[in-house]
Amino acid sequence: MKNKGFSLIELIVALAVGSIVLLMVGAMLVRGTSMFRTENDEVNMRNDYQIIRNQIDQVLMEAKMLIVEKQGDYLIIYTGQINPDTREFTTTSKTTERIITYDSNNDTLYISGTYSDHIAEGNVISTIVEDFDISLDESSKKTVSASGAEEIYYVNPLKINISLSIANKKSTVDYDYTLSLRNRLKGKDAEDKKILFYETISGDIELKEEFLVESYMVK
Length: 219
Known about the structure:
- This protein has one helix spanning about 10-60, and strands at about 65-70, 75-80, 100-105, 110, 125, 130-135, 140-145, 150-155, 160-165, 170-180, 195-200, 205-210.
- The chain has a seven-stranded mixed β-sheet with strand order 5-4-3-2-1-11-12, with helices on one face. The chain has a three-stranded antiparallel β-sheet with strand order 6-9-10, with helices on one face.
- The chain is elongated and about 110 Å long.
- The protein is α+β, with helices and mostly antiparallel strands.
């Protein structure tokens, strides 16, 4: 029998089938690569979140007092008593007092020991924080009636709501959780136990809100 080889039609059909197979394989490779990158990005985001959260939680869990200041693009959290003029801690022997600074303009989170270097190089925790805020959890709130009037107190141990958003080039992930503080927070003296929320107006720090923390007042 004579071997006539492939006809033109057979060759065209073979090329067409081969092209389809190559396209399918290429599409699968592209999809697989994309899925790998997506999963890798998600893993990296979770790891970044855990690192950032651990740093924040460690500082807040060691807090002796909680002072929150809104200063332009900055959210600043002090964990000890400060001098309102200098923003420096007033304790003579600092141990666990720290400052958490969030710069929303640059998506950057800092942690430092003094106000003077609270945004100094070397204190950067993350540069991918798109949003960060804290608030007092309602479960820590107690209402006390005295002399016909009602006062609201936040009772130790306090619970803090924390919202945190981190972002990469492709996506943003939002995290919300509640942290129960380890220490019983104190005020600037034994009869003045408060959580203070400040804001900066015209360069001067002014008291915006204050929440009393008097567990012994609640019967």
